[in-house]
Automatic annotation (TrEMBL):
It comes from the Bacteria. The chain crosses the membrane at residues 55-82, 94-116. Keywords: Membrane, Transmembrane, Transmembrane helix. Residues 1-117 form the DUF1468 domain. This is DUF1468 domain-containing protein. InterPro entries: DUF1468. It comes from Acidaminococcus intestini (strain RyC-MR95).
Length: 133
């Protein structure tokens, strides 16, 4: 499986290089022209560094708290970071942040029998043989 994923990543990289090179060649006449600045002038550093901080925080918290609860909190925070604080955006973020981790937890934990990080917030339904990590 890792070889398949690696091969797909190499193919996608080649497609990106070819498409970008074709666009550069059409614009400047050179396939490999100047690559430009790493950060664009209109880059949103709040989202960039917010994403990095949330991702690092998630890595440290998920083992202690558990997959589902940590994912609900962090998916909500990621959604709010990118969509804002409007009433509609908050409602959508809340729905997505609850449904997505619970569905992933059920699919991996029940259907595939894969153990996700369990912490202090893991819940086991003994009658049904289901654990939500």
């Amino acid at each position: 499986m890792p070889k398949i994923i690696g091969t797909l990543l190499v193919i996608m990289l080649a497609v990106i290089v070819l498409v970008e090179g074709r666009e550069r060649k059409a614009a400047t006449g050179k396939f490999f022209g100047s690559f430009g600045p790493f950060f664009r002038e209109n880059a949103d550093f709040k989202k960039l560094f917010g994403t990095l901080l949330l991702f690092i925080g998630y890595i440290f918290v998920v083992e202690e708290v558990g997959f589902t609860v940590t994912s609900i909190i962090f998916v909500f925070l990621f959604n709010v970071l990118y969509t804002g604080w409007s009433k509609k955006a908050l409602r959508t973020s809340l729905i997505i942040s609850i449904l997505a981790p619970v569905i992933v937890s059920l699919i991996f934990g029940v259907a595939f029998n894969i153990t996700l990080p369990s912490g202090i917030c893991s819940i086991t339904f003994i009658d049904y043989g289901i654990t939500i990590y």
